[in-house]
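Give me structure tokens for this 148-residue protein.
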Amino acid sequence: MKTILVAVDLSPASSKVLKEAVGLAEELSAKILLLHVIAPVSSAVPVGSSMEMVSVPLPLSAGEIAEVKSRLNQLAASVASPKSHIETSVKEALPVEEIKHQVEATGASLLVVGSHGHGGLYHLFNGSVVTELLKQATKPVLVVPARN
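Here you go.
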């Protein structure tokens, strides 16, 4: 059975992205791995007696991760059909690196992601997970636009 990795950010566009992937999966008799990657939150911590600061990742609590997993499972259930097979996974890591890792680890033959269509200024300051995935992809990537 083929695997389609669907990476979502749990924004309203995630439902549209997953619906597109489910349609493809049903046509290809593929299973879907629905992935949400939580980017680590950092806090600045003073070092020694100087004013130097170090950034330290703050792990999420088990309850916070369970809440995200529940939202992901609800999303999967909202688009599931009798012919679809959807597994969910929540990871806490750098999104681009973790998505690339999951593509390789699961043997996914296709990556499906959504694009919010932010402008150039937004990407200049914030970057784009989709843009980086397209630059570094080793498998085909389907980008589903958030807008109709």
